[in-house]
Amino acid sequence: MNDLSNTTTPPPPALPVPTSAKYRVPTIHPEGRKFVAIAVGITILLGFGLKWEVAGWLMAGISVWVAAFFRDPERTTPHGEGLIISPADGMVCSIAQVPLPRQLTGDGGLESDAATGTVTRVSVFMNVFDVHINRAPIAGHIRRITYVPGKFVNADLDKASEDNERQYFIVEGADGTAVGFCQIAGLVARRIMRFVAEGDQVAVGERVGLIRFGSRVDVYLPEGYTSQVLAGQRCVAGETVLARKGVPELLLGATQ
């Protein structure tokens, strides 16, 4: 009988590197189509049924915004050892040394720095105009998912990581590297969704979840990884290199 105790799941196959590209109009994610349909239906009722032209035009603008909010563009994801890719579109609102949340610790959890008891947390804030599809920061399997109900304070505030509705993920790569990240609801967001389950295998940059209407994602970097973004910088989910292994110093830059 074969011994399967040490069998590991192979990493997903690498995708071909593109040598050219054309602009593609983003599709609307299936989770958003019902909202778009409702908005369009109200627009037709106001504009054509009730002949309320001003309200109809206003609702038409809202319909366009709802469609744009749920847009799901394709992304070209960098592949390589020692890279962590941004799981979210938006602005880096914080880079800080923090203790690990208890939802990411314990058996099968992440480890903090032995000397300081902290890890580097990179927070990406998504406003209502950003794409809200979240993507896997590394390739591997989903080791843990933990949902926590909570409040809906401004996701740009530090206390949002502790008070708001949120959902934690731990993804473990083929080399044993584990990355934790957390979807956090904001002032407007009232629904966190995930497209994966514990044990699922994901490719780097693969779609893993969605937060509706304004939110934030926190990424907890493993030991040996250094942030490659700056506070105030904009990130693109599935494309921006958020952190790199073996880089001794933080990236420096200036707002101008």
From TrEMBL:
Q: What InterPro entries has UniProt attached to this entry?
A: PS_Dcarbxylase (IPR003817), PSD-A (IPR033175)
- Pfam families attached here? PS_Dcarbxylase
Asked whether the UniProt record includes Cell membrane among its keywords, one would answer yes
Its transmembrane ranges are none
Q: Which domain of life is it from?
A: Bacteria
As for PTM, the annotation reads: Is synthesized initially as an inactive proenzyme. Formation of the active enzyme involves a self-maturation process in which the active site pyruvoyl group is generated from an internal serine residue via an autocatalytic post-translational modification. Two non-identical subunits are generated from the proenzyme in this reaction, and the pyruvate is formed at the N-terminus of the alpha chain, which is derived from the carboxyl end of the proenzyme.
Residues with site note (Cleavage (non-hydrolytic)):
G214, S215
Provide the E.C. number(s) assigned to this enzyme: 4.1.1.65
Membrane topology (UniProt): Peripheral membrane protein
How many cofactor units bind, and how? Binds 1 pyruvoyl group covalently per subunit.
Q: Which residues carry this modification: Pyruvic acid (Ser)?
A: S215
The terms describing its cellular component in GO are: plasma membrane
Q: Which UniProt keywords apply?
A: Cell membrane, Decarboxylase, Lipid biosynthesis, Lipid metabolism, Lyase, Membrane, Phospholipid biosynthesis, Phospholipid metabolism, Pyruvate, Zymogen
Q: Where is the active site?
A: S215
Q: Name one GO molecular function term.
A: phosphatidylserine decarboxylase activity
> Under which pathway is this protein filed?
Phospholipid metabolism; phosphatidylethanolamine biosynthesis; phosphatidylethanolamine from CDP-diacylglycerol: step 2/2
Q: What is its main location?
A: membrane
Q: Which cofactor does it need?
A: pyruvate
Where in or outside the cell? Cell membrane
- Disordered: region residues: 1-20
Q: Which family does it belong to?
A: Belongs to the phosphatidylserine decarboxylase family. PSD-A subfamily.
Q: Which NCBIfam families match?
A: PRK05305.1-2, PRK05305.1-3, PRK05305.2-5
Function description: Catalyzes the formation of phosphatidylethanolamine (PtdEtn) from phosphatidylserine (PtdSer).
Self-association and partners: Heterodimer of a large membrane-associated beta subunit and a small pyruvoyl-containing alpha subunit.
Name of the protein described by the UniProt record: Phosphatidylserine decarboxylase proenzyme
